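Hey team,

Filing this mostly as a record. A colleague (T.K.) asked me to run one chain through the structure pipeline before their review meeting, and I want the input and output archived in the tracker in case anyone asks later how it was produced. No errors, nothing strange. Just documentation.

Input sequence:
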Amino acid sequence: MTLNTELHAFYTARQQQIPADVRQIMQRAGQELADSGQAARALAVGAQAPLFHLPSATGNPMSLADLLRTGPVVLTFYRGAWCPYCNIALRHLQQHHDAITARGARLVAVSPQVPDESLSLTEKHQLAFSVLSDVGSDTAKQYGLAFDLPDDLAAVYDRLGFDLQRVNGGHPRTLPLPATYVIDREGVIRWAFVDTDYTKRAEPADILAALDALG
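Output structure:
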């Protein structure tokens, strides 16, 4: 089963469990974000990838410059461990991790969560790739991905018990659009997936094809 097939199946089942008023708020916020045109304004193919220096799940700093010294980088942004769609996507990436590294690339995932939350996620899903903490979403902002939740959706997330105030280190309203970039050794974005719809993610097969195209 492809990643997006599984995501769609999960979405369909999930809708039956969410109260109608909550669904309405989520759908309206999603449409407003799509209509904002932010996905089109995010960094795209041909752009120079902004450098970052972020702590890993264990607190050790990791930089894009250092990663690029060993080969291309697959950089994926996700919302957090509280997001079931993110968890499904990360599990699929883990399943393709060996294929990514076999192509000489490094896979790193970035979220606005504090390192402790990233560590729990890494251990729970036995992730072999680095999970970095972009608390405050400064890196996501540089890539054009950061956005603020509207008031009513933030209230829904509080009601659902996501506690973004804690897991995002005091920045509960700012999240990244789901995005994945393939960055070559010169730091140029050679492939990009950005979508305002958090129920859709980059297919691992497409990521591998992009790495193969680097030559």
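Quick notes for T.K.: The chain is about 45% helix and 20% strand. The chain has one domain: 3-213.
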